[in-house]
Amino acid sequence: MPALPNPNASRHAGDVAAGAASLALAAPDGAELTDAELAAAEPGAVELEVTELDLAQPGAGGDDDAGLDATDPAVASTADGLPDDELPESGRPSHLRVAPEIERGLLHRRRRAQLLVLGVAAISAASMFLLVTFHVFAAQSAFTLDKLDNQLSVQQRDYGLLRDKVATLSSPDAVANGAKRLGMIRATEVTGLHPPAAASFASTNSLPVPPLTPYRAIDDTGQ
Amino acid sequence: MQERPALVRVPPRVTSRAARPAKRLALCSVLVLVVFSALAFRVAQLQVLSGDRYRLASLRQTVHTVPLPAQRGTIFDRDGRDLAMSIELTSVYADPQEVVDPIAYAAELAPVLHESEKLLRSRLGDRHFEFEYLARRVGDDVVARVKKLGLEGVGFVPESARQYPGGALAGSLIGEVGGDGTGLSGLESLYQPLLAGKQGEMVVERDQQGLDIPNTARTQVEARRGTDIVLTLDEPLQWETEQSLIDEVAATKAKGGMAVVVDTTTGDVLAMASIDGASGNSPAHPSGPTSATRPLMDLFEPGSTNKLITLSTAIQDGLVTPDTEIDVPSVLPIGSTRFTDVDPHGDVKMTVTDILRQSSNIGTIKIAERLTKDQLAGALHSFGLGATTSVQFPGQAAGLLLDPSHYYDTGLASTAIGYGVAVTGMQMLDAYVTIANGGVTRPPRLLDATIDGQGIRHETAAPRGHRVVSEHTAQEMSGMLTGVVSAGTGACAAIPGYTIAGKTGTARKAVNGGYSTGTMASFIGYAPAAHPKLAAIVVLDEPASTYGGTAAAPVFSDVMQFALTHDDIAPDDPSNSQYNAARASAAASGTTCTDPAVAAAAAQLRAEAAAQAAAKAPLAPIAPPVTVTGPTGPTGPTGSVVSTGPAVSTESAGPTGSTGPTGSTGPTDSTGPTGLTGSTQPAGPTGPSGSTGVQGPSRHATRTTRKTPGTLPKHTSQSG
Fold it and tell me: Cys-Cys link to B496, which of A105, A145, A210, B579 (CB 3.0-4.6 A)?
């Protein structure tokens, strides 16, 4: 079947490409489908493809015969949307094309951007981790502080109680009562002791002579 | 050729499905917009239009201000011993609405809390309240026992309690605090602004269960601890003074007594005792926090102790010298009043020293007649009478001095011998401290220092004194006062090893425009006489032994001896010359000097011996019925001097009967200082109604801590 030149084909290249893709799905090895294969194919699939083509090419009219023949290789090749001189070579799947060359600078920029994003993400994650860690430590410190505060209160309370106990037990009244329990009684007379030797200290003769010390010798020599 | 099957056009279902989401999307958008608009409107209404109102309502419900009570400052004695301190105890409460079985609860709690079961039952069964105290400020052991019971609805709350480790020691002076921690009396009241500190507060947000909402704003103003105050009191000396006074009050069946010991070099009040006599079943005991502090608040006519001022003024003005001889008649009529001496004598010549030594009323009046009324009144003011002392104390009395223009014809004579003036014990002691200090006043003080919340000590400045008489006059007066103890009315005040200077005083109490038979017996003195360090006054209210020389002087001796040795003051009379002379003088005059402490100890020993004998137990060594004892040995006194004669004192007991100043021209007439002996405190109980302080006549009677009525435990007064 001769290829039907269709001026709308290039105009609606994108739409056709979609149809071609569908067709390609119907023939994954790139071979054209025969009518018999089409007939043997699942009716619904074909109907859907045609319907989509129809939808994509409203200018194709309602005549079935005037519509695109999906099995036409010319149509298929045209449907790739590539100029004739860029048609795929034989042996290369028709749905593949050579990717345009990307500038090296663009690649570098993309790579830097990726690194930047990764870095920011890493820093963010680390910051979050540090924040959480700090919060945990802060919470633990607060807990420890509360615990120490409670300990301080308890110790201060105990200190007050013990101080009161000491003061009570060492009060004159307690001491007197304790002495009474031990059988002590108040002295009925007081005797003043006046050591007679105290008077002898007034005389230097009775004082012992201090021993000589090395410091004395140093003083004598003036050193 | 097989006919190509015709392709069937399928209706574009996609087209119909695509139209509906758009409508739904639009519908949802509209709905969302409406809903969000409504929400936005409501939010605006709540946040903007009524924002303040709801914010305030929210704050009212969630924000709670928790007061942080400041710990009350401690009261120390001069050596840092605790006289009053605050500690934290625990109170037991119940929520009656959670109590399942009030009767069973009460039965279990009563023996633990030492409360009546009936009272607990009524508290636990009152379901109108959610909080009822079951016991206030109990010890940890009680708390543990209550916790062990595991009663639902019974809880614990910490409360501050004011403790007085010394018990009733200086109770009226230190005072007490109320349930809200406010000082009610004494120094607790006077220094309330210092002791109370500053209450802090904590603002927290809490949920409906009363739990703190985490991560909400919380502000806290720390409480500032109260300032500690350091008194000049010495706890052991205070106790000794009180005990000695209690023994004497009990022995002489006096209505009460007072004693003060001061340091003459600094003016520090080392002891200030106030004793209430026995009444009913209550033995003599230290005045409680609600009672008057007698040395600062009780007014009385000083009697012969006032002769110091009269004679020193006359000497200072050069009118007499210690050796000046004065004609002393047996009776001195002035106006319609006849003044006499206690010891009858004929018309004699007496030196000024003898007049003071024998406390001659007539001789003193004869000397006073050389002074003008203004001179004598000025001297009284100069010595500090008629004005409050420098001791800061609430309710301190200023005394009463008549203006010279109001003197009747007996005014000068009565004032000269200590009638017609009303003084406090502290004022009279100040006068003697002035002489001891070489003629310069040494204003007394009770507050030694303060210690702020940071622990920094701030010394209080000692008030400056002023000269009243010359140093020469003071020395001459000291010599004369020494003679009063060596061979005069104050013989019982002598202390072995020390030289004492002092003067006795016995004044009848003014009652209803006249004078009663009861006396105010006093002794004021200082030691060592040559270089005074300590001075003391002892006053007994209506003792059975009547005279200051026999009732007050022994207490002075006891207290001063303890004070001198306690302060490590070296003896100045190793040969006991004054002591021996005094005992000989007392024996010659038939004066019995009974050391109250020794007498009490002897009485106790006798009682114990009697009890042992009754139980047919071996007798313990019994001390002899000591009246006067002294050291033995070559340098000691000659031993006991026991008087067997009638107790006759040369001390002036004041004018009585027709010869006393109670006549129409005496100081008790319509313009006289009638009723000067009263207290400046309103009449009331003489001790804390709930006091359990038991002060028996025995020196070592057991005392318990001040206890306010109610549920306070031992050693607990009030919160503070």
Answer: B579
Report how far residue A90's alpha carbon sits from residue A69's, in angstroms, rounded to the nearest whole number. Answer: 22
- Closest CA relative to residue B167, chosen from A29, A81, A45, A172: A172
Dist. CA B337–CA B343, nearest whole Å: 18
Tens of pLDDT, residue by residue over B374-416, are: 999 999 999 999 999 999 899 999 999 988 888 877 889 999 9
pLDDT digits (tens, 9 = 90+) for B540-551: 999 987 788 889
CA A50 – CA A33 distance, rounded (Å): 14
Is the CB of residue A138 less than 8 Å away from at least one CB of chain B?
A: no
**Which residues numbered 218-247 in B keep a CB inside 8 Å of some CB on A?**
235-236, 239-240, 243
Cα distances from B698 to residues A177, A185, B104, B249, B542, in angstroms, run 11, 11, 45, 11, 20
User: How far does the CA of residue B426 sit from the closest CA of chain A (Å)?
Assistant: 25
Longest dimension (CA), chain A: 157
- In angstroms, the CA A116 to CA B107 distance is 78
The pLDDT, as a whole number, for residue B592 is 79
Which residues in chain B are contacts of A188 at CB distance < 8 A?
598, 601-602, 623, 626, 629
Nearest to B513 by CA among B336, B677, B675, B303: B675
> Is B350 strand, coil or helix?
strand
**Tens of pLDDT, residues A163-205:** 999 999 999 999 999 998 998 887 777 777 766 655 555 555 5
The structure's pTM equals 0.69
Distance from CA of A64 to the nearest CA of B (A): 8
Instruction: Quote the DSSP letter at residue B626.
Output: -
User: Which of A50, A169, A170, A186 should one mutate to test binding to chain B, selecting the residue with the greatest count of B CBs within 10 A?
Assistant: A186
Q: What is the pLDDT of residues B431-447, one digit of tens each?
A: 999 999 999 999 999 99
CB contact under 8 A, A188 and B81: no
